[in-house]
Design goal:
Creatinase/aminopeptidase-like, alpha+beta, hydrolase, single chain, globular, protease, 40% helix, Creatine Amidinohydrolase, 4-stranded antiparallel β-sheet
Length: 280
């Protein structure tokens, strides 16, 4: 890429990096306030209120919270089961906070895993997620088809002894594209998803269908194409005997021929990355 293009990309990414960090700051702040008896609904509301106090008025999707075996999507069969419930947090119980705010027209979609006290199983899951982050980046830089990368992630999970839980998401996605969203004074949402963001995703899907690519990264044939340039919210999700863990963050894909510039994580100063560095 030329210096001018690099500068333009850097300017564009700054807003996405800021909103992603804002979302992770929210997750850490809410996680620090969780205590026995707090429900998933209360944890989701705490995320909404924290972000609204800092100017967030629109969402790709409203915040989620999953406690206990719901972190592994145990028994999930229909989309409504993803929404927060009255499940209450107990000592040692794992949790996942997931939020996708839009701020300044930029979108983030993050997942934060933790536990109320010590949970060795989730600690092991989080440690083993580092290999997935490395694999995904390496194979995207190799321009492998998204469907093949998905299958390689699956195989790594099997070798580690875990179950693929992102397969429980709609269309089994491990990632989806995000983009800028027009700012409006009032931004309604439908079933927890912001209408502006859904319109953008639908436009991407229509555009991609004409050109042979999809904004959804899935195990199905419509994802059998090389990585499409843009921003991808990636979320490998591991499960083991009723405990789940994941991270979710933005992967930047470009059309550069330089491998290191062709794909990179938007930000390496995130809680799970710092955690891996400290463990080493």
């Amino acid at each position: 890429m030329t210096t001018a293009v690099n500068s333009e990309l850097s300017t564009r990414l700054r807003g996405f990096r800021q909103v992603q960090r804002l979302a992770y700051d929210c997750a850490e702040a809410v996680a620090a306030r969780l205590e026995p008896g707090v429900s998933e609904r209360q944890a989701a509301r705490m995320q909404r209120e924290w972000l609204r106090e800092r100017g967030v008025r629109d969402w790709f999707h409203l915040p989620f919270a999953w406690f206990g075996d719901r972190t592994a999507f145990t028994g999930f069969r229909v989309p409504l089961q993803f929404f927060p419930t009255d499940r209450r947090l107990e000592p040692g119980m794992p949790f996942i906070l997931d939020m996708a705010p839009v701020h300044g027209g930029c979108t983030a979609d993050i997942g934060y895993s933790g536990s109320l006290g010590v949970n060795p199983v989730q600690d092991r899951l989080m440690a083993d997620l580092e290999a997935h982050r490395e694999l995904i980046l390496r194979e995207v830089r190799e321009r492998r088809p998204l469907r093949e990368i998905y299958e390689d992630v699956d195989r790594l999970m099997v070798r580690q002894g875990y179950a693929n839980r992102h397969r429980a998401y709609p269309f089994g996605v491990i990632a989806h594209k995000v983009d800028q969203v027009k700012q409006r004074r009032w931004s309604p949402h439908v079933l927890g998803f912001g209408t502006q963001s859904l319109k953008g995703l639908a436009a991407d899907a229509l555009h991609g269908h004409r050109e042979g690519w999809s904004p959804l990264w899935s195990p199905y044939r419509f994802s059998d194409h090389p990585p499409q340039p843009g921003l991808w919210a990636v979320e490998p999700h591991l499960g083991f005997r009723g405990t789940g863990a994941k991270f979710e963050e933005i992967l930047v894909v470009t059309d550069s021929r330089d491998p290191e510039q062709s794909a990179f994580w938007l930000d390496d100063d995130l809680p799970h990355v710092r955690r891996w560095a400290e463990e080493k």
